[in-house]
Design a protein that fits this description.
This protein is a component of the acetyl coenzyme A carboxylase complex; first, biotin carboxylase catalyzes the carboxylation of the carrier protein and then the transcarboxylase transfers the carboxyl group to form malonyl-CoA. The chain is α+β, with helices and mostly antiparallel strands. The chain is built from two helices and ten strands. It folds into two domains: about 45 residues, no CATH class; about 100 residues, RNA polymerase II/Efflux pump adaptor protein, barrel-sandwich hybrid domain (OB fold (Dihydrolipoamide Acetyltransferase, E2P), Beta Barrel), CATH 2.40.50.100. It starts with a helix and ends with a strand.
């Protein structure tokens, strides 16, 4: 049933899904539309994101205009260290989900306190909507603190680890 009207509406529908993905800072969206007998549209829209993983990135406001307000100002090295999210080495959560410190139960964790990581190394996984999102180290350094528990919930913007 691939007539032009159906095709145009499918293109509009997919464009609307992509917009929803961007506006809500999602990484993936999957929809199946049933049109009738043996005629359906199955769409999966996803994006590879270099999500906001540093609390002190001034460009964060431009990257995610609908994100919750960033901490008051980019943290200065002399910031209050009692709040881990103010630490300049804080890696923050790019999404709401469940934290997993290892690739599977019983496996060695991706990162441990004192471990050296390279930029781009997976430091943990956040499961959101049944999708496993690998969270990369934004820079090379040493894991100084791990601020989340394996299997625990995490909010958007919450500090995950401190890398110095």
């Amino acid at each position: 049933m691939g007539n032009k009207t159906s095709h145009d509406s499918d293109v509009s529908f997919i464009a609307a899904l992509a917009e929803l993905l961007r506006e809500n800072d999602l990484t993936e969206l999957q929809v199946k539309r049933e049109y009738g007998d043996n005629d359906s549209l199955n769409v999966r829209v996803s994006r590879q994101t270099q999500t906001i993983v540093q609390a002190s990135v001034p460009a964060a406001a431009q990257t995610a205009p609908h994100a919750p307000a960033a901490p008051a100002a980019p943290a200065a090295p002399a910031a209050d260290m009692s709040d881990p999210s103010n630490h300049p080495g804080a890696v923050t959560s790019p999404m709401v989900g469940t934290v997993y410190m290892a690739p599977e139960p019983g496996a060695a964790p991706f990162a441990t306190v004192g471990a050296t990581v390279k930029e781009g190394d997976t430091i943990l996984i956040i499961e959101a909507m049944k999708t496993m999102n690998h969270i990369p180290a934004p820079r090379a350094g040493t894991i100084k603190r791990i601020l989340v528990e394996d299997g625990g919930p995490v909010e958007f913007g919450a500090p995950l680890v401190i890398i110095e």
